[in-house]
Amino acid sequence: MRLAERAVTNDLGKRMLRKYAAPEALTLVEALRALVRGDGLPRRRAQQLEDTALRLAVRITLLVQQRVLIWDDLRPVIRSADAWLLDLLRKHVVTRAPPHTDPADPAHERLASEAAAFERELAALIGGHATPKLVEAGRAVVGFFGDAARMQRFLTAPRHADTVEALVTSLRALYVMAGYEIRDDALTPEISTPSMATPSR
To answer: What span, in angstroms and rounded, lies between the C-alpha atoms of 134 and 74?
Structure first.
């Protein structure tokens, strides 16, 4: 496990993710990296966030492959991620046009709360399988994307528009692959989940 953790910040770790991740997931990762780099963080801090996200992804992949984690262990994390990300898809639709606000959550407080719930579930999932330093670094990654003020910038700043569009497009595709039906127009986004939000495999 330590060897794999050291590998995730180099080409070997990235090749591992390419092997097991769908192309849409890789597009999503690249969009997230672009948002981190484009938000004015010092280069070292941006690189730390990227490296942490890679380490977490590979760590969880290995734990599942080695059957240290089973599907039931992942359910709370998946449910909290779904609540956060599906709400983000809805929010993206309703903030496209002027005045670029979400009447249901204008200050993005609900979205931030959903991100915090995911952060807690992720920490609980990996807490027994990672160092406290990695767990806290993972919290920082989620906190970066869950910050309400930052989310407002990502959704409305012209410099982020293309990156956010790529992120949302890939995220939608991943949910469709998982069996979700997502329908929307500029006013009334509607997201229909499968009969089981986290189907067993």
So the answer is: 18
Read off the pLDDT of each residue in 1-26 and give the average, rounded to a whole number: 61
Q: Which DSSP letter does residue 185 get?
A: -
What whole-number distance in Å separates Cα of residue 181 and Cα of residue 156? Answer: 26
Instruction: Name the fold adopted by 2-192.
Output: de novo design (two linked rop proteins) (1.20.1440)
Instruction: Kindly state the percentage of the chain with pLDDT values over 90.
Output: 57
Q: What is the pLDDT of residues 121-144, one digit of tens each?
A: 999 999 999 999 999 999 999 999
Peptide bond into 23 cis (omega under 30): no
Whole-number Å distance between alpha carbons of 194 and 191:
10
Is the predicted pLDDT of residue 181 greater than 60, yes or no? yes
* Predicted confidence (pLDDT) per residue in 142-171, tens digit: 999 999 999 999 999 999 999 999 999 999
Question: What is the length of the chain?
Answer: 201
Rounded alpha-carbon distances, angstroms, from residue 113 to 21, 23, 82, 146 = 28, 29, 13, 8
- How far apart CA 37 and CA 3 sit, in angstroms, is 27
Rounded CA-CA distance 101/3 in Å is 46
d(CA 98, CA 158): 13
Query: What is residue 181's three-state secondary structure?
Result: strand
Q: Where are the beta strands (DSSP E) in the chain?
A: 181-183, 190-192
